[in-house]
Amino acid sequence: MSTGNAMVTVLAFVLALVIGGVLIAAVDPDVTKAAGYFFSRPGDLLSAAWSAVASAYAALFRGAVFDYQADTFALAIRPLTETMTTATPLIIASLGVAVAFRAGLFNIGAQGQVILGAIVSGYIGFTYHLPAGVAVLLALLGGIAGGALWGGIAGVLKARTGAHEVIVTIMLNYVATNLLAWLLTTKAFIGTNGEPKSITVLPHAQLPLLFGSQFRVTWGFVIAILASVAVWWLMSRSRLGFQLRAVGSNPAASRTAGISVQRMTIYVMLISGALAGLAGAVQLLGTSKYITDGIAGTIGFDAITVALLGRSKPLGIFFAGLLYGGLSAGGRFMEVVTGTPIDIVLVLQALVVLFVAAPALVRTIFRIPAPSGELKGAAA
Amino acid sequence: MKKIIRAAALSGAVALALAACGSAPSDDTTTPATGGDATSTGGATNSDFKGCIVSDSGGFNDKSFNESGLNGLLAAKKTLGIQTAQAESKTDDAYAPNIANMISQKCNMIVSVGFKLSTATGDAAKASPDTKFAIVDAQPTDSKGAALTLDNVKPLEFDTAQAAYLAGYLAAGMTKTGVVGTYGGLKIPTVTVFMDGFADGIAKYNEVKGKDVKLVGWDKAKQDGLFNSGNAPFDPGSGKANADSLVAANADIILPVAGGAALDALTAAKATPGTLVIWVDSDGALINPDSSSVILTSVMKLIGAAVESSVTDAVQGKFSAEPYVGTLQNEGVGIAPYHDLDSKVPDDLKKEVDQLKADIISGKLKVESVSSPK
Asked: Which of A191, A251, B202, B344 is buried deepest, with most CB atoms within 10 A?
């Protein structure tokens, strides 16, 4: 199963790059100009298209991994650290989404849980003057608690009343967004700022930089690695993880076997929310340092796609998160260097996920036989 | 069905083929990569200058300050033949990396748009003292939010209260119901500065004419009023509830200080005959031609011109970090022509507004707002 799926994921990426290349060529002004006289000199169109696509993808690589044209070594490897910075909260939040997936629940509310994590960790981080070490730990725990609370609401409602977690988590996203908008008008959060921007987190509560002041990577990246390992252990090695997976694959059988499905539903939403909340805390305490209305960006929604891309496995998610972060960081660089609209990168990201979610399509295109015994549409 | 598809495909192919029949350009003219018409002073070296711009999360097609800022930079590119680069920030966490990318791509000057970029701009400017910056509508700040004065950052700010004052006086003179209204996107200084000026203009009219025109949606003394809620308070749709509530409160002239959410005021005005809108930032009658019959005037904030002139100064080696404050005097702010409604505005009122403008420029009349740039 694993080799076949890994192959499909790689081919999905290749397909997305090909289609993205067509789009890059189509929006390039030189290509459009050359297309106007295609029949009098067809070579122009092809060379213009080639150079547009090649330079855009070269820039994508330079912005995501290694800038071989940079003056200094630090500048050359900065793109990789940017990728790590962007990937950090994505990986953590995505682990949360994946835990819910594996237990058969769709947590669409990662966005709201990220926001709650940022709110609580931020409040602790800029309000209480605590010694180094304690401050950042407490702020992180606060973020975890905030996210767990938000996820837990959906879990309790599902377990006790049967309210569907998809609807409840989507609605809780709105509540979180508007709660944040309101908090950013209160003195307790914005202090003397005229704009809706919170007080900056105190230095002791900030996550320290990992590689010095030239790079933005913080210890949050280490937290992302630890979280991946912890989720792997939880899902693959622990008794609770076994029960969660059992409920995910067959609730009725699990109930017969003596597992409380209701209790598992609450647990899984608490864990899922806690991870998303941790993602919010890490983003705030490491990278943003103050809360704005856009603190969560699109982390909570991208986390769902990263979880799909990583097939809900911790290692898969870790690399899918890096890939996603790389596309974001590289896309920003590409826009600056070649003027290719950053929207192309968003299309690329969407295409990768689309092809990964439709393995049969990729197999048909590349004429790969389906591995024997695989279930149809086993994407998640 | 199949035949139709084939026919459609064939005609599409023919159309494509015809479109591709143009003649190829001759090879002997070597056109420069950028700025073919670099005719102004120092044209030869201008193409070495790279002017760059970073948007806030509103994006460059926001019909508001990001778009105006980009247009200013592109205007400078056209007249000076400089190189440009632009980065559209999709989320708040893109500001710092976008500015860092601009620096690594050796931009000579970086324009950052909006208060959301003030910390990212301050940090980057401190780390790269050789790069010049301009920041629209804000000052650079440190990570704690305290304003910084840096030798390489020029704040571009606008005292829009002056122009809004004229609009307030005009609105008070034009209202038939005796009620005018306003709403904002967010309660931030760059929005409420319009409302303060507007309120004072109305108060001036009441004082001069002994009338009692009321303003709903903003209380200058309390610094509180009507603002959009939700995730995207400057996007179309977010202002609908507020625009409708102002119409319901009998307001017949509305000043929406809300970017794209000002469109909701146009919708409300068209639904209720007799209601007029005063647009903000750019000349609303020109960018919304289908609504020009309900746009009385616009409180303009000429961001594009300010960006263009600051970039031009930098190209010509005349950059200074001296803050630019747009006023009526330097024409950085102003009110737009009345366009379609010109005949409806009494001549006396026009003269009074012109006189007030002259008084503000001469300093005889002071428009004060706590939100004016300092």
From this structure: B202
Q: In what side-by-side order are the strands of the sheet with B50-54?
A: B83-87, B50-54, B109-113, B132-136, B153-158, B324-326
Distance CA(A139)–CA(A158), nearest Å, equals: 29
Q: Which of B90, B102, B145 sits opposite A336 (nearest CB)?
A: B102
What percent of chain B clears pLDDT 90, i.e. is strictly above it? Answer: 78
pLDDT of residue A2: 52
Please report the domains of chain B, with CATH numbers, ordered by start residue.
2-158+303-326 (3.40.50.2300), 160-301+338-362 (3.40.50.2300)
- pLDDT band at residue A30 using 50, 70 and 90 as cut-offs: confident
Phi, psi (degrees; rounded to nearest 5) at B272: -125, 95
d(CA A233, CA A225): 12
pLDDT at residue A15, as a whole number:
92
Interface of B with A (CB under 8 A): 17, 19-25, 52, 57, 85-88, 90-94, 96-98, 100-102, 104-105, 115-116, 119, 143-145, 186-189, 229-231, 371
A335 CA to chain B: closest CA distance, Å? 6
pLDDT, one tens digit per residue, over B60-107 is: 988 788 999 999 999 999 999 999 999 999 899 999 999 999 999 999
Task: Please give the single-letter amino acid code of residue B306.
Answer: A
Nearest of A81, A52, A55 to residue A66 by alpha carbon: A81
Q: What is the C-alpha separation between B109 and A152, in angstroms, rounded?
A: 49
Chain A residues 228-267 with a CB less than 8 Å from chain B: none
Tell me the C-alpha to C-alpha distance, in Å, between residue B163 and each of B68, B135, B188, B324, B373: 18, 21, 18, 16, 14
pLDDT at site A378? 44
pLDDT interval class at A33 (50, 70, 90) = confident
Name the residue in chain A with its Cα closest to that of B142. Answer: A200
Q: Which of B24, B52, B189 is closest, CB to CB, to A41? A: B24
B-chain residue closest to A195, CA distance: B188
Q: Where are the domains of chain A?
A: 91-319
Hey, are the CB atoms on A36 and B119 less than 8 Å from each other?
A: no
The answer to whether residue B11 scores a pLDDT higher than 80 is no
DSSP A41-53: -HHHHHHHHHHHH
Sign of CA dihedral B43, B44, B45, B47: positive
Chain A residue numbers touching B102 (CB-CB < 8 A): 336
Q: Which two tokens stand for residue A226?
A: 């630890």
Q: How far is A294 from chain B (nearest CA, A)?
A: 6
User: How many angstroms separate the CA atoms of A373 and B326, rounded?
Assistant: 71
Q: Is any Cβ of chain B less than 8 angstroms from the Cβ of A370?
A: no
- The interface predicted TM-score (ipTM) is 0.88
Q: Which sign does the torsion angle of CA A346, A352, A357, A358 carry?
A: positive
Cβ-Cβ contacts under 8 Å, B116 against chain A: 195, 197, 292, 294
How far apart, in whole angstroms, are the C-alpha atoms of residue B56 and residue B41?
Answer: 32
pTM of the model: 0.86
Token code pair at residue B252: 């017949």
Residue B72 vs residues A231, B40, B49, B309, B310: alpha-carbon distances, Å: 51, 17, 16, 8, 10
Over the stretch B234-250, which tens digit does the pLDDT of each residue have? 888 999 999 999 999 99
Task: Render pLDDT for A172-224 as a digit per residue (tens, 0 to 9).
Answer: 999 999 999 999 989 999 988 878 899 999 999 999 999 988 899 999 999 99
Residue B171 reports pLDDT greater than 70: yes
Closest CB to B87: pick one of A177, A297, A332.
Answer: A332
